[in-house]
Design goal:
Strand order of the largest sheet: 1-9-8-6-5-4-3-2
Number of helices: 15
CATH architecture of the largest domain: Alpha-Beta Barrel
Strand content: 5-15%
Shape: globular
Low-confidence stretches: none
């Protein structure tokens, strides 16, 4: 990784931006103070809501941090398929005594307004998910001193990230919890994907920019493995979801290690885009029928998910989690960073021959 970007955070540990109220300022601040790079998630927030969280985070830490932005999505959804899915969800609406959301509630997530805020009130790092921004957007952020990161799930996507002028690529393996950051979402992407170590190796040969590895990382030994494979840092989401400062619903945190939830699966059930979550009733019953329609399905199911959380019913919630979810540790975020750093140091010593005789 470029020395200037590396200097922002002493430890090669990045807290993934988790939208939906998980990556709150308190979490990002704790990670930053411990030597990692904390992130806010601007997804599903207004531009002003994002700005208010940035101000709050700045009041909690003077260390560098990042903000993640969702790319606007092209219109490819079949309205008829969305209507059919809405009909299938009618029973859920009755059960939770909630109205289905309006699938036409907006496609761009306030993208342009958020860019204005980030240019007028620069932050150290901005990352993009669901596609690569234009070269003009990247150049504009560079002019105000912001480093730019972009998620990629394939070598071809990583090449697009490099062409856009980004400072680093976030290589997201299929193991990752939450939404896959594919640049183009089509039905054929369901269930497909590249494992993280293989992806890091392939992207390492495809581009010349630094790599941040993401996907199922829960221990310092795994961080050592991706660094050895060619990454410059590791991004962890599910590992921080269970921390004290995380804004995740208590039911979500508990579900990570609850024996009732034994595995994860990629699904379109909650949002219309492939996302990895714990397999629960909603995912099992509706996943096979959910169309490729993001953000339409996200808007449609949003009231149902909120109602399920309010009812204390984890079986109706989107329990995003990576494949390593059973390894989650309920610790303060700063302490988790320290533990991970210690495990990383021990793993590096072992790899260098200073461990096992």
């Amino acid at each position: 990784m470029s020395s200037a970007l590396t200097d922002l955070f002493p430890l090669p540990i990045v807290q993934a931006p988790m939208a939906g109220g998980v990556s709150v300022p308190q979490l990002a601040a704790a990670v930053c103070e411990a030597g990692g790079l904390g992130f806010l998630a601007a997804g599903y927030k207004t531009a002003d809501g994002m700005y208010q969280e940035i101000k709050q985070l700045r009041s909690l830490t003077g260390r560098p941090f990042g903000v993640n932005v969702f790319m606007p999505q092209p219109e490819y959804a079949d309205p008829a398929a969305v209507d059919v899915y809405a009909h299938q969800l009618a029973g859920e609406a009755t059960w939770y005594e909630a109205e289905l959301g309006d699938p036409e509630s907006g496609r761009d997530d306030g993208y342009e307004a958020k860019l204005v805020v980030l240019r007028d009130n620069p932050v150290p790092v901005v990352s993009f998910h669901f596609g690569a921004p234009s070269r003009e957007v990247v150049d504009a952020l560079h002019r105000v001193g912001t480093f730019v990161l972009v998620t990629a799930t394939t070598p071809d996507e990583a090449r697009a990230v490099e062409r856009a002028g980004a400072d680093a690529v976030i290589a997201q393996g299929i193991e990752a919890g939450g939404h896959q950051g594919t640049h183009r979402d089509v039905p054929e992407t369901d269930g497909s994907g590249i494992g993280l170590l293989s992806l890091v190796a392939q992207i390492r040969e495809a581009v010349n920019i630094p790599i941040i590895a993401a996907g199922g990382i829960m221990r310092g030994g795994q961080i050592a493995a991706v660094l050895a494979a060619g990454a410059s840092a590791a991004q962890l989401g599910t590992a921080f979801l269970a921390t004290h400062e995380s804004g995740a619903n208590a039911l979500h945190k508990q579900a990570l290690t609850n024996p009732l939830f034994v595995r994860t699966e990629l699904t379109r059930a909650f949002s219309g885009r492939p996302a990895r979550g714990l397999v629960n009733r909603f995912l099992r019953e509706h996943g096979p029928y959910a169309p490729a329609a993001y953000p339409e399905i996200h808007h449609l199911t949003s009231p149902l998910r909120k109602a399920a959380a309010q009812a204390g019913d984890a079986q109706g919630m989107a329990l995003w989690a990576g494949q390593g979810h059973r390894m989650a540790r309920e610790l303060p975020a700063g302490q988790l960073v320290e533990v991970l750093a210690g495990e990383l140091a021990a793993a590096r010593t072992a790899l260098s021959g200073g461990g096992v005789r």
